[in-house]
Amino acid sequence: MGGLPATMRAARFDAETKALTVETVPVPAPGRGEVVVRVAACGICHSDLTQLDGHFTPRLPVITPGHETAGTVAAVGDEVDFWAPGDRVVVAAGRPCGSCRECRHGGGIDACERLEIMAFDYDGAWAEYVVTPATTLVGVPEHVPLEQAAVLADAVSTPYGALDTVGLRVAESVGIWGLGGLGTHLVQLTRISGASPIVALDPLPAARERALGLGADFVLDPLDDATPERLAEITDGHGLDVAFDCVGRASSIAQADRALGHRGRLALVGMSPDKLTLGAEMNFVRGRHTVVGHLGYRMSHLVDLVELVARGRLDVSGSISAVLPLEEAADGVRRLREHEGNPIRVLLKP
User: What local confidence, expressed as pLDDT, does residue 2 receive?
Assistant: First the structure.
């Protein structure tokens, strides 16, 4: 259809055997309201690792991973008249379920109660082509590299959405636990948003040094016994206004909550199977703390980020740690798992 080849190369993950292989599979055809995108690049994310390691079970027994992608429109389905082959696009990492209460009332992707996540609920983009609803695309200007646009689709847009979730205001103090892809971009985004001071925490010295270069005012080792005292000193004893946990571990979440001041807000951005123990309930009542889970972003967030990158307000060029061919997907996963080279994002290029 529309000049698409019959087959393509794609990474395939078997949920039962935990095997990740690159195979030849049929190219997907666009249905009504859908678009097929020729993948230019797709990121490897820590949430991909959680699935590959068996912490989250995909809906399909064999699935194509990858949910941070950009490319060019290759074919459009019926009733799609606002995209055309050749258009440069970044692809949102989810689609509306189409059957929940919000979807039945026309809410769409931003309001869906059971949002389906690319690479977890349906095939992702560690492949030459990916099919997606036409409403999940954002155009990318010619001067923005598609590799940089791909990074926006989760590693940048998810933390950007977290700023909205906590209602970050100018001059509020911020702590960021975990300086991988999400946390590193939170440093940049909170700086753009006018947060002050910005405290970045990670056990890895290289990650802390990188955060300083991207706009953090202070960097701390969360495993250092002196860290709670340093956080108090930095905030003049008031505690943090906002904390972002990008680690997803019970220990980091508890430390972030203890660092909050009066009416402090804690956003849980990282994911893990850890069970949470947040301490005495009266502390939350007295401190009027808010703890909120955050996942994903709205389409308007992705539009904003394309604008910021296109205008030079946000530089994500340094976020691309390596670009590997699709056939080396397993090695890319290994690099991220082993923190080889302290990567922000390793991309696969079909």
Answer: 54
Q: Return the pLDDT at 62.
A: 95
Identical fold for domains 7-139+316-349 and 156-293, yes or no, is no
Asked if residues 59 and 120 have their Cβ atoms less than 8 Å apart, the reply is: yes
Fold classification of 156-293 is Rossmann fold (3.40.50)
What is the CB neighbour count within 10 angstroms for residue 339?
A: 12
Tell me: the pLDDT tens digits for 189-227? 999 999 999 999 999 999 999 999 999 999 999 999 999
Q: Strand 129-133 and strand 116-117: pairing?
A: unpaired
Residue 152 contacts by C-beta under 8 Å, 6 or more apart in sequence?
Answer: 68, 70, 90, 302, 305, 306, 309, 316
Chain centre distance of CA 143: 23
Amino acid at 283: N
Taking the C-alpha atoms of residue 79 and residue 161, their distance in angstroms, rounded to an integer, is 30
Q: Which residue stretches of the chain have pLDDT < 70?
A: 1-2
Domain ranges of the chain: 7-139+316-349, 156-293
The Cα 227–Cα 344 span in angstroms is 24
Model confidence pLDDT, tens digit, residues 318-334: 999 999 999 999 999 99
Integer CA distances (angstroms), 25 to 7, 65, 77, 130, 330, in order = 5, 14, 20, 12, 18
Q: Please give the order of strands across the beta sheet that includes 62-63.
A: 20-26, 7-14, 62-63
Treating both helix axes as pointing N-terminal to C-terminal, what angle do 157-166 and 299-310 enclose, rounded to 10 degrees? 120
The closest alpha carbon to 179, from 198, 199, 202, 161, belongs to: 202
Q: Name the 3-class secondary structure at 93.
A: coil
Instruction: Report d(CA 156, CA 53) in Å as an integer.
Output: 23
DSSP state letter for 262: E
Domain 7-139+316-349 CATH assignment equals 3.90.180.10: yes
Distance CA 29, CA 17 (A): 28
Q: How far apart are alpha carbons 77 and 139 in whole angstroms?
A: 18
